[in-house]
Amino acid sequence: MQQQISPAGRLKGAVRLPGDKSISHRAAMLAAIAEGQSTLVNYATGADCGSTLKCLQALGVAVGIDGTTIRIDGCGLEGLQAPPVPLDAGNSGSTIRMLSGILAGQPFPTTIAGDESLSVRPMQRIMAPLRAMGAVVEARDEKFPPITVTGRRPLKSISYTPPMASAQVKTCVLFAGIYAEGETTVEESIPTRDHSEMALREFGADVATAPGRITIAGFPKLQGREFHVPGDISSAAFFLVAALLVPGSHIAIEGVGLNPSRTALLDYLIGLGAAVQVSRIEQVSGEMTGDLDVRHSPTGPGVIGGAMAAALIDEIPVLAVLGAAGGGLTVRDAAELRVKETDRIAALAANFQRAGVHMDVSPDGFSVPGGQKIRAASFDSMGDHRIAMAFAVAALCAGGPCTIEEAQAASVSFPEFYSYLARLAA
Ligand code: S3P
User: Fold this and answer.
1) Amino acid 8: pLDDT
2) pLDDT value of residue 136
3) Which residue has its alpha carbon closest to ligand 1 atom 10?
4) Closest approach atom of ligand 1 to CA 25
5) Whose C-alpha lies nearest to ligand 1, atom 6?
6) Does the pLDDT at position 135 exceed 90?
């Protein structure tokens, strides 16, 4: 599908976003192995979180879908069933990596495959710790999906330090730790999003945290519950940047997740001079939420590296657009961008080139000078949701109407994106 996007006059109005993708995956997986029924309210609407539900159904879990309210009949820690066919994780790295942790504790083999993009994403990062815990894990060429996890129960508990900053790897190990004897620990030198720690506690697990160290006690009693998912701050990022760039804009984004491990985006934007305000902060299902208010404002030059690169990894594509049209951006320590749904450094460079925007590329980052004119162009999402949405934002401040090719990729995390954008621009 192609999407035409014309330069916007100004963005005005209020939006409430679909549920957070990261939190939705975790809540669904834990609900599946809890005792009793769970109701997940405002579950993410994107295809990725749909993939998680389909995988759980294939494992014998009863899932009722009523709009964005999901009812899951938990089958307990030992109730999953061997699936008759390979599971399909679609485009979702979170599904394959996090669910593998749970599968490592099941006494049967499960194969998980995915789409073309997922089939070339690295899996060694979860294979190493799961093997150390005693699961048998096979993968195409020893690194790519499809992977087959043959679990065992109990697993051996380990203390593991992932070699890269990855919340998916951390989660995989903690979820396997549910099925391990004793205590399983993950140590991380760069902190990553802590939704798993929070959700595990909400469902009743014993999780101890200290700076850089998370420990879960094996075989917790997980109890089904009502769980509210806040709006996705990574989806909000596209509207925040759009409002900052388009003169005259003033928008409100309500009920957004404000977990401190995700709000580096707000600190970064405010640090650049953006007029972003946060209000009505409250805690729901263990997570902070609140409302955002953003007005068009000039932004200064940005530098993202070290722990910031990990904290902003999903937002970097749209922050690159802000940098190009705003005050410039230099990114380093972000080699992980190259193994996302697509090589996002290459995807940014190729699309900027189409619009006459200059960008210097390095192995683990890039630099975009600020104040550049974005020429009207046809952009290619390359099948990556965040590239599609980042260049839809670029199109709002381009010299003329633009096209996004393979625009439907946005529906992996945010199917409503183009209609919400049109509503704010109307
Ligand atoms: C996620 C972790 C990050 C992020 C992804 C979601 C999660 O991936 O990019 O969109 O929900 O844990 P990595 O763990 O690969 O860094």
Assistant:
1) 86
2) 98
3) 314
4) 11
5) 22
6) yes
Q: What's the rounded mean pLDDT across residues 283-288?
A: 96
Note the pLDDT of residue 328: 98
Are 326 and 244 spatial neighbours (Cβ–Cβ below 8 Å)?
Answer: yes
Cβ–Cβ under 8 Å, residues 118 and 91: yes
- Tens of pLDDT, residue by residue over 94-109, are 999 999 999 999 999 9
Q: Which two tokens stand for residue 316?
A: 């970097």
Nearest ligand 1 atom, CA 21? 11
Ligand 1 centroid, distance to 176 Cα (angstroms): 17
**Whole-model pTM above 0.90?**
yes
Note the pLDDT tens digit of each residue in 2-28.
999 999 899 999 999 999 999 999 999
Ligand 1 atom nearest residue 22's Cα:
11
Residues carrying an active site annotation: 314
pLDDT tens readout for residues 231-283: 999 999 999 999 999 999 999 999 999 999 999 999 999 999 999 999 999 99
CA-closest residue to ligand 1 atom 16:
166
If you average pLDDT over every residue of the chain, what do you get? 98
Q: Whose CA is nearest to atom 4 of ligand 1?
A: 314
170 CA from centroid of ligand 1 (Å): 10
3-state secondary structure the chain: CCEEECCCCCCEEEEECCECHHHHHHHHHHHHCCEEEEEEECCCCCHHHHHHHHHHHHCCCEEEEECCEEEEEEECCCCCCCCCCCEECCCCHHHHHHHHHHHCCCCCEEEEECCCCHHHCCCHHHHHHHHHCCCEEEEECCCEEEEEEECCCCECCCEECCCCCCHHHHHHHHHHHCCECCEEEEECCCCCCCHHHHHHHHCCCCEEEECCEEEEECCCCCECCEEECCECHHHHHHHHHHHHHCCCCEEEEEEEECCCCCCHHHHHHHHCCCEEEEEEEEEECCEEEEEEEEECCCCCCEEECCHHHHHCCCCHHHHHHHHHHCCCEEECCCHHHHHCCCCHHHHHHHHHHHCCCCCEEECCEEEECCCCCECCCEEECCCCHHHHHHHHHHHHCECCCEEEECHHHHHHCCCCHHHHHHHHHC
Q: What is the pLDDT of residues 224-238, one digit of tens each?
A: 999 999 999 999 999
Name all residues whose Cβ lies below 6 A of ligand 1: 22, 94, 166-168, 171, 193, 313-314, 336
